[in-house]
Amino acid sequence: MAIQAQLYSENLGFPLGVSQDLMENNSCGFNQFSFNPQQQQYYDYPQQHQQLQNLYQKDNQNLMQFVPTYNSSSAQTMPTFSQSLTSQLEKQNIEINRFLSLQNERLRLTLQEQRKKQMALILRKYESKAQYLLKQKDEEIAKAANRTTELQDFSKRMEIEKQTWQRMAIEKEAMVMSLNNTIEQLKESACSSTNRGTAEDVESSCHVAEEDKTEQQYGHQMMMMMCKSCNSRKSCMIFLPCRHLCSCKYCDTFLHSCPVCNMLKKASIEALI
Questions:
Q1: Which of 107, 98, 1, 89 is nearest to 40 (CA)?
Q2: Phi, psi (degrees; rounded to nearest 5) at 6
Q3: Does residue 75 contact residue 4 with C-beta atoms inside 8 Å?
Q4: CB 5 within 8 A of CB 78
Q5: In the chain, which end has fewer C-beta atoms inside a 10 angstrom radius, N or C?
Q6: Distance CA 243, CA 246 (A)
Q7: For 227-273, which CATH class?
Q8: Structure pTM?
């Protein structure tokens, strides 16, 4: 029985010879190191390891004292002690597994919380960048809208000014035709009011004077209507903003300033003459 007890103690890794104070403290004093679920977060591994080493040395000393006095009565208590030791080990295994499960759950929750914080930080960072880019795009859209409005207003003003110049050109053309008709009527009335002999002299002199005057006016008008760039074609383009009728349609594409006043050309309108 002594040999069987010694082999059993070697297989378990614990000494069988224990002191009286260890037997009183729940079979070999394992309650000192059993896990308490309420105190697991304050558990200190290095300190317990040192205590286990001290306990192991103390039990070995007690075992050396116990071996010479070992008898049959102590052998009878071995089954009870083995059962108590086995139940205590099973209890400690259950508590260790429970402790590990609790620590795993805490670690999982901690990692999950850290991941949520990191995701929130990343979202805030990219949200600020997105807001900045959206603000820039809104400003660009507002500038483009203002520019479009300005161009539309300018186009409307140019259209109105074009219509005004066309109307003025038509009025000037009608005025020229009216003056020509008046001149013809005056010539006819002046020639018919004189007698025959004198009328011929007067008519000839009047006719010559009127022809000279008409030719001068016509020549002046023709000079005014000639293109100031090529001097060969009729002027039909009005330059803006100086409003000079000074170029033909062909020369208008090559001129960047008015040939009369040298003002920079911003636009040109064709006059219907």
A1: 98
A2: -65, -40
A3: no
A4: yes
A5: N
A6: 9
A7: alpha beta
A8: 0.31
Cα separation, 44 vs 26, in Å, equals 22
Q: How far apart are CA 260 and CA 262, in angstroms?
A: 6
Check: CB of residue 191 under 8 Å from CB of residue 203. Answer: yes
pLDDT tens series, the chain, 273 aa: 333 334 334 444 444 333 444 344 444 443 444 444 444 444 444 555 566 556 656 655 554 454 444 444 444 556 677 778 888 888 888 999 999 999 999 999 999 999 999 999 999 888 888 889 999 999 999 999 999 999 999 999 999 988 988 888 888 888 888 888 888 877 777 666 655 555 455 555 555 556 656 656 655 555 667 788 888 888 888 888 888 888 888 888 888 888 889 888 888 888 765
Size of the chain, expressed as the number of residues it contains: 273
- The token duo for 195 is 């007698």
Domain ranges of the chain: 2-103, 227-273
DSSP strands (E only) in 79-177: none
Look at the block and give the residue holding tokens 């161009």. 151
Angstrom CA distances, 46 to 34, 52, 98, 129, stand at 15, 10, 20, 49
Residue in the block written with tokens 């000839």: 204
